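chain below, 299 aa
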Amino acid sequence: MVKRIVDILISAALLGIASPVLMLASILIVLTSPGPVLFRQVRMGRGFEPFEILKLRTMAHAQAGLAYTLGPDPRITPIGKWLRRTKLDELPQLWNVLRGDMSLVGPRPVLPELTDEFRESYSFLLRVRPGLTDPASLKYSQETRLLEQAADPMHFFKTVVTPDKLRISFEYLAQANLWTDCTTMMMTAVICCFPSMSRIYGRLPEASAQSPENLPEIEMEGVFEAPRAIGVESRLESFVGITSPAAGNECAFSHHLAHLEAAAEDASRHTHSPWILLHNPVLDTESATADAKGGASGL
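prediction:
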């Protein structure tokens, strides 16, 4: 109840303060490209209830393309690039917060298809309202630039970026309180002004320039499918362990190897295998780790 009251008071105040900026941005959008000022998209909300998220339109209206923006996109307008870089396109979401669709701080709302792929993870995360900001979104505040460097942006987004975001969100929700929410909101303002400050939340993983099909033995089909066997609260600790990238070395290969090793250790402590090994029931945890290490020595 306290969190909801804070959401209402702060979002209403910020909408009032931001109204001149929103008005100016709306005029620029209308003058530079035809179409509506607001962009609406269905995202998954608390309890898997879909809602329409609001943003200032940054793309040419009515042009077909991916729902994700994975690097440079010809649909983005010149004024849209500026709005995205400054994060001003996110300001209309304060109305989503005021309505109760979202909270000021919480896991970022994602497209329904992504919650289907990572259903068990979002079964936990969507027990709370999705948020305008959280540590995961702050770490990946320059996500588009990171995806530009990947040979296969969608693959990198779903196998590296999304699991890392889930890990951060799980860790945050395990200790979230009013103080951590206030700290996150303050850091959001700082990072919007000084994007380089996002490094406080950790180094970004490296986007491999090599296409996935050319990686030797480290792209094992199905390894990074949705975490189907993970529990919710009782498995929170083990999930965080499985999805964390290798310490001190965040290249694509070490990331995959660290996942297999963590899965093998986790399987020995639990009665059923973690999601990362379920893609191949005949492959036991010992052989999975050994095969991965064999690939490492081969490299």
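Residues 214-299 have pLDDT under 50 and may be disordered. The longest strand covers residues 38-44.
thats it, cya
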